[in-house]
Amino acid sequence: MKDFIKIRGVSKHFGDFVAVDDVHLDIGKGELFSILGGSGCGKTTLLRMLAGFEIPSSGKIEIDGNDVTHQAPYDRPVNMMFQSYAIFPHMNVARNIAYGLQKEGIAKAKINKRVDEMLALVQLEDFKTRKPDQLSGGQRQRVALARALIKRPKVLLLDEPLAALDKKLRERTQFELMNIQDELGITFVVVTHDQEEAMTLSSRIAVMDKGRFQQVGTPKEIYEFPDNRFVADFIGTINTFEAVVTRMLDDRIELYSDETGTAITALGKQLFEVGQQVEVAVRPEKIFLSKDKPSNDEDTCVAGVVDDLGYLGNRSLYRIRLETGKIVQASSQNRRRSVTRFLEWDEPVWLSWRPRSAVILMD
Amino acid sequence: MSSKSRFIISTLAFGYAFLYLPLLLVVLYSFNDSSIATIWGGFSTRWYGELLQNDLILDAALLSLKVAVTSATAATLFGTMAGLALARFGRFKGRTLFSGMISSPMVMPEVITGLSLLLLFVTLQQFTGWPGQRGFSTITIAHTTFSMAYVAIIVQSRLLGMDESLEEAAMDLGGKPLRVVFDITLPLIAPAMVAGWLLSFTLSLDDLVIASFVSGPGSTTLPMYIFSKVKLGVSPDINALATLIIVAVSTGVALAWLIMRRSARP
Known about the structure:
The complex is a heterodimer. Chain A is of the alpha+beta class. Chain A folds into two domains: 5-233, P-loop containing nucleotide triphosphate hydrolases (Rossmann fold, 3-Layer(aba) Sandwich); 238-361, CATH 2.40.50.140. Chain A is built from eight helices and 20 strands. In chain A, the strands form four sheets. A six-stranded mixed β-sheet of chain A has the order 6-7-8-3-9-10, sandwiched between helices. In chain A, strands 13-12-11-14-20 form a five-stranded antiparallel β-sheet, with no helix packed on it. The radius of gyration of chain A is 25 Å and the shape is elongated. Chain B has a single domain, classed as MetI-like (MetI-like fold). Chain B has helices at residues 3-29, 46-53, 55-88, 95-107, 110-128, 136-160, 165-172, 177-206, 209-214, 222-230, 236-264. In chain B, α7 packs antiparallel against α8 (177-206). The longest helix of chain B has 34 residues, at 55-88. The A-B interface holds A 51-53, 72-74, 78-80, 82-84, 86, 88-90, 99-100, 103-104, 133, 147-148, 151 and B 163, 165-166, 168-176, 179, 183-184, 187-188, 265-266.
């Protein structure tokens, strides 16, 4: 089912401020969907509209064929895991998890059984009677997850689910979340500002800015084929060059850039006019570095000198200054074990990249 | 010991002495056997015994306690509702005015509060016939109006320090709004409500000025009785009474502080 959640022309205004601006989106059943954006981009407001804490100023939200636009939070088949986890401090772990079922008026024995199932799912069996202030950050996160899942919601909303955890724990929890989602088949909608989190977790990502979706697609599509400047900049690092279209071919576009001082070839079927001003973008890891001039004619080759370099263990980052003065970022994997550096400061170097690595950005 | 720390300690000692020496003297003289309050005549608890024989004092104490319990309970109820409105209802129309009016009784001179309440009661009596006689009910209403301001402030600050998503989470899990208030909000602000109640109780027990304005003949609160008696000279049984009040009030304040401190921990 491709349109399990249907968001149609939803906007939200707070006074003069437009938090969410005419958003359309379909999310499929069982998808792990992320909404990615910086702070104030409207992602949390959108999530709160899905949960029912905010009513859209206009537009419609459907979940599983039912219009929920004006439904109260307690009537929706949706549960949410809050950024602060919002664990009830005056109840122990088991009572926190049981709360949702208690409100449904289910028999006590049945509730206890389900609580035990949930505790097993998040591996907290030994913490049943603990008070929240006796739990670590990771354990609180699991309690929040179990509490939100116990009613078997059609959709689970997660507001920055991992932001409060440290890096190591975050990586582990990411995979746990994915496994649980896979096991239960519940549709997850995650809001995050962390692009790495969104990339690893999600089947699809919506990149949001100023209340609008800039691009919706799989992590790969968004990284490799960004639609526009904002998306390219927001996800990872990217080098951009101003260029002019010089020739349109069937499957490729030839350009000339003053910033590199060379011709650039890009693969693509987009339509441009000769003479049009565009931006060409290349990811740092797509740039090859060599001491001798590469011989492949198709590739774009530029000469430069090493302006700065950084060693990160698994890879190295370089800032190369071209003859035109433009700084280009490149990175390379450190596959060989060696104490001497491949390149030194101020050493001349050749940069080259394949036509398929160059992306032409609109505005 | 350096001269600096000696200076600090003596300043501290002087400050505490200034604040608490008079109270200590009252407690000390309440055990004075002599019937002249200012002359030490040996240790005795006879004034406490005489206190219990004095019907006027007992009546006044009973009225004060009744007023304090009733007004503290009413103030806690209304103050909590006001605090909830201030902390949880967003920016409703007239919020600033409401917030100002809630806290104004705290800064309003007591004489003004007392006088205006007296005028209110007199006018009310002319038009509606109520209150026929000023006494328990009028003093209780007067005390409720100023002590609910304190409860509102305490409850509001407790709510502001509380994560709002707790209530949202309960609602998200299927709790209807009123249910959520009883499941989540009230248990979490209960310490603030208890502290507010104790504070209101002590404020009511202490009040002399407002009670003097709004009480009628035959209804004398404890502070009013003491004040009228002291005008004729300090008698030793008043010292005993004062000691009992000091104990009651400081217990109330200490309890309020303890409860607030314990609940402030995460």
